[in-house]
Write a structure and sequence with these properties.
There is one protein chain. The chain is of the alpha+beta class. The chain folds into three domains: about 90 residues, no CATH class; about 160 residues, Alpha-Beta Plaits, CATH 3.30.70.1660; about 70 residues, Double Stranded RNA Binding Domain, CATH 3.30.160.20. The protein contains eight helices and eleven strands. The strands form two sheets. An eight-stranded mixed sheet has the order 2-3-1-5-4-9-10-11, sandwiched between helices. A hairpin with a 5-residue loop joins strand 2 and strand 3.
Amino acid sequence: MAFEAHIDSILNRHRELAAMMADPARAGDFVKNSREYANLQPVVDAAEAYNAALKEYADLEALMSDPDMKDIATEEYYKLKEKLPALEEALHLTLIPKDSADEGNAILEIRAGTGGDEAALFAADLLRMYRAYAAIRGWRFDIMDVTESDLGGIKEAIISVEGAGVFSKLKFESGVHRVQRVPATETQGRVHTSAATVAVLPEAQEADVDIRAEDLKVDTFRASGSGGQHVNRTDSAIRITHLPTGTVVAVQEEKSQHKNRAKAMAVLKSRILAAQREKLDSERAADRKSQVGSGDRSERIRTYNFPQGRVTDHRVDLTLHGIDRVMNGQDLDKIIDALHREDQAGKMATLQGRQ
């Protein structure tokens, strides 16, 4: 379908929905129709702005042949000519399919990778970085479960992040984060390379994942050692296994068994939903050259080089100097925004190739 014909079909559908919403006989469909109407509105607004600019462009071109209007029309003509590509790009961007999870919350999982104690310390640094970033954006940052290392690092942390557009902002953080620095325990001053993995899962809603009680194995055990906020004498910790997929979640952070179970179920649903989305995304991305944000944790996505004070994201070949501003959350948006632009460019290229 040609681009113009595709836009025309959307404009026609928007008008059709407006008529249906105004028809008392279709009152029962009002909610469904109004939702579709609202989803199409950004495309309609961008199309109307672009079409109005094209009409004005043609009018100015005609006026340029009028000796009395030539100078004014020519000046306005070239001003508008510079604006048209941006208006066309804005229209194309509205056609990119929206990720239904983008505006929702997320489950953030951080785990120490290769590198022993230094990897655990770096995982703790990443936890602090995301906490600071969440504070800057006004999000709620709730640590659901954490397992600490002996030197003050973390072996694993599971965090609930709530706020507007959380998943949209954090989803490209999934992957292997590599650090290069001199560990505090290094006596020779040698630079070591360690790693931690980050997984960002969309928070599952009740309607997203159907989990049957008979598919779950629930075990209780005693919270233990570093990692829980406490060491208690009751079996308050919860381990839930989803038998069909083999997915296992354990939570021990709360003193209440009921609260731990609720948190474990939330993480379990989000992990299952993420697996479903990854399978679907892989199928959709099979014909795409750009796969930013594919969530493949086997690939190194970013390197934090402390001796040289720089952070490099390998997916977009972006290097920022001033590592402290990234680690305190201030400059993290510069990387995230670059990843979003790359992702949009890839999706737009695919969209245009199909038109």
